[in-house]
UniProtKB/TrEMBL annotation:
GO terms for molecular function: ATP binding; helicase activity; hydrolase activity. One of its GO terms (cellular component) is nucleus. The keyword tRNA-binding does not apply. This is Uncharacterized protein. It comes from Rotaria socialis. The lineage of its organism: Eukaryota, Metazoa, Spiralia, Gnathifera, Rotifera. Gene3D superfamilies: P-loop containing nucleotide triphosphate hydrolases. PANTHER family: ATP-DEPENDENT RNA AND DNA HELICASE, EXOSOME RNA HELICASE MTR4. It comes from the Eukaryota. Keywords: ATP-binding, Helicase, Hydrolase, Nucleotide-binding.
Amino acid sequence: MGLNMPARTVLFTAARKFDGKELRWITSGEYIQMSGRAGRRGKDDR
């Protein structure tokens, strides 16, 4: 299940996240997934 929240821009304030146990670096796959949320044609409000 996913949540569609249209965004024009994605801004990272940190490259680490808390995973429930510790603060860890995000993986390249997580980065690609999160940064890919922005700029989806026809999905953001103009």
